[in-house]
Amino acid sequence: MVGNPADAEDLMQEAFLQLFRKIGTFRGESAFSTWLHRMTVNVVLMRLRKKSLPTDSLEETLESDGENSGPKRDVGAPDLRLSGAVDRVNLERSIEKLPPGYRTVFVLHDVQGYEHNEIADIMGCSVGNSKSQLHKARTRLRDLLQEEIRQQAREERKAAKTPTGSLD
Amino acid sequence: MHCKELESVLETEGLGQLPKDARLHLATCGACQAFVADLNSIVSAAKSLPAEVNPPDRIWISLRAQLEAEGLIKEPVEVSEQPAWWESFSAWLKPRTFATVTAAALVLAAVVFVTRIPHGSDPGVAKNQPVAESTRPAQPQVTVSAPAATTLPANAAHAQALAPSKAKELAPSPSESASFTLSQAELDVPNMQLAGNSQVDLALRQNLRTLNAFIAECELHLKQNPQDELAREYLNTAYQQKADLLAAMMESGRGEN
């Protein structure tokens, strides 16, 4: 959620400290793991707010991007299918670039396997919002991965134009 | 269905089983096909990512230090390597040798006390005469828990001359009486002409040493925890066992001679 291991370790420690300080407040209304997850997410979001980093509201409603919005097409570039091009390194790099809210829902659902009702409980949002955020996260990741592929293609072309390998 | 409607369906239903209209649109729209295929590729790749990452050990060490500093956790109390007194006692009871000896000694247990009490004498009078063979009855009958059959310590004799309430304070407890009696009986053990080289005799002497150590531990425990009834019960049982053991040792000595 925070995008770097150092901050992740600090926040992990802070989350467990909160756990021990507030263990007496656990009422058993939800699973202990859910309660711990919720506490951890809150700790992280508080840290991100202190840093004034954007934290997408999980309560935002569906937004309309236009009358004919659909799968976006990159103007001036061929459609880049991702099939076979989504490797682990590219994906992790792209996940780090996601906004925290999108990143949280995507990791909880697609990486850790939580269901939307559990995510809603952890994040304090509705199931509908959880689904919406997940779809937006996936869509954003697709854009980021396409950009990653384009960037790699540009670097390959640049490398091919070096004096030792000039194209003539 | 238009592309926008398909995306709304994907947002609310996910990538699972799509409704018929959506499937029909996908069959005819290449852009939406590519879009759905890309999302499926992303989901497949995400499943290969580790769901959990173990933090380095220093994180747990640092966390523990901070929890202790805040008083949220405490160091566990070190458990003594020595077994608890009841564990020592139960472990001592396990060997079959001791059980066999005890069973045989139960029949002869009263010999010790019957032969220690001269015929016609006052049980409260201090006497410490060696037991004569002619006075020993055939069947033992006395148990350790009867302080009247024992020789009282000096403070007990003094207590009898005091007022009843004061005497009660100074009168020895049954445990003290039994302990004194057994100690007196044990004094005779070295004088017995035991066959020190026999396996049984060696086992008896070893058992006596073990039992004495256990009794000492129990007595110390009771001094510190006088309300521990279970400990008192164990101690009384130990006294009984010692009496049985001494009887067996004496019988063994007479048999060897």
Short description:
The complex is a heterodimer of chains A (168) and B (257). By secondary structure, chain A is mainly alpha-helical.
Outline the fold blueprint.
The complex is a heterodimer of chains A (168) and B (257).
Chain A: H1 5-22, H2 32-50, H3 88-97, H4 100-111, H5 116-123, H6 127-160
Chain B: H1 3-13, H2 20-28, H3 30-47, H4 57-69, H5 85-93, H6 96-116, H7 154-160, H8 164-170, H9 174-187, H10 199-224, H11 229-256
Helix pairs in contact in B: 5-10, 6-11, 7-8, 9-11, 10-11
What are the key terms here?
heterodimer, A: 168 residues, mainly alpha, Rna Polymerase Sigma Factor, Chain: A, Arc Repressor Mutant, subunit A, 2 domains, 60% helix, 0% strand, B: 257 residues, 63% helix
Please provide the count of β strands of chain A: 0
CATH architectural category of the largest domain in chain A: Orthogonal Bundle
Number of helices of chain A: 6
The CA-CA distance between the termini of chain A, in Å, is 47 Å
Overall mean pLDDT of chain A stands at 78
Q: What Rg of chain A, in angstroms, do the CA atoms define?
A: 20 Å
Q: How many distinct folded domains of chain A?
A: 2
How many structural domains of chain B? 2
Detailed description of the structure:
The complex is a heterodimer of chains A (168) and B (257). Chain A has 168 residues and is mostly helical. Chain A folds into 2 domains: 1-55, RNA polymerase sigma factor, region 2, helix turn helix motif (Rna Polymerase Sigma Factor, Chain: A); 85-159, Arc Repressor Mutant, subunit A, CATH 1.10.10.10. Chain A is built from 6 helices and no strands. In chain A, helix 1 packs across helix 2. The relative contact order of chain A is 0.11. Chain B is mostly helical and 257 residues long. Chain B has 2 domains: 1-78, no CATH class; 85-256, no CATH class. Helices cover 63% and strands 0% of the residues of chain B. Chain B has 11 helices and no strands. In chain B, helix 5 (85-93) packs antiparallel against helix 10 (199-224), helix 6 packs across helix 11 and helix 10 packs antiparallel against helix 11. Classes of the chains: A mainly alpha (168), B mainly alpha (257). The A-B interface holds A 9, 12-13, 16-17, 20-21, 62, 67-71, 73, 79, 81-88, 91-92, 106, 110-113, 128, 131-132, 134-136, 138-139, 141-142, 145 and B 2-4, 6-8, 10-14, 31-32, 34-35, 37-39, 41-49, 51-52, 55-56, 59, 62-63, 66-67, 70, 72-73.
